[in-house]
Amino acid sequence: MWQRNDGKSETNILQNQFTKYLMTAIRRRKAAYLNHRGTVERYEFSVDFQEMGSEFSTDPDMLARLPLQMQLENAALKLALEQMKERERYIFLTKVLDARSFEEMATELGMGYKGVAAVYYRAIEKIKKEMRGEEL
Amino acid sequence: MNFKELLLAAKQGDSKAIGGVLELYKPLLMKESIVDCVFDEDLYQELCIVLVRCIEVIQI
């Protein structure tokens, strides 16, 4: 069925015209699309965590390196964290930042699951209270 | 059916004819959709829309 378009018969001329018309439209759309994609890429922040390296990862001895607490912007949160007991703070930060489960922490700290959960929720309550106090 | 008949039918909104034209120009659209040696599906989609729009708009 396929045959070479010699551009002589009426239908071939029409097809050539249509193809040319289409090519122009395609070139324009493509240019607009690539332009848009370039703009998006320029402003979009790459969220590839593997690229970020160890700088942003949370390791267990993070509490030993205290600059984290200095990075906290919210004064009330900082105060609340400072006032907490070491164990509470450890459980809270491990749960929130490292997303570790209560079971893991329970075996690590030699506590029961409920014990860890209770400490965690108590810590949250303390922080909420502290932050509410700041606002009022 | 030659190209003129196909295009006229497509202009009338015959979905089969539109499919025919799309099939005819598929290799071209696919070629144009390759950016930096990668086939960009979004761009291909956009170009398919452009083709359908061209069928509607072109004056014979």
What's the topology here?
The complex is a heterodimer of chains A (136) and B (60).
Chain A: H1 10-43, H2 49-52, H3 67-71, H4 75-83, H5 86-97, H6 102-109, H7 113-135
Chain B: H1 3-11, H2 15-32, E1 34-35, E2 38-39, H3 41-57
Antiparallel strand pairs in B: 1-2
What does this structure look like?
The complex is a heterodimer of chains A (136) and B (60). With 136 residues, chain A is mostly helical. Chain A has two domains: 44 residues; 80 residues, Arc Repressor Mutant, subunit A (Orthogonal Bundle), CATH 1.10.10.10. Chain A is built from seven helices and no strands. In chain A, helix 4 crosses helix 7. The radius of gyration of chain A is 31 Å and the shape is rod-shaped. The termini of chain A are far apart. In chain A, 12% of the residues are buried. Chain B has three helices and two strands. In chain B, helix 1 crosses helix 2 and helix 2 packs across helix 3. The two termini of chain B are 17 Å apart.
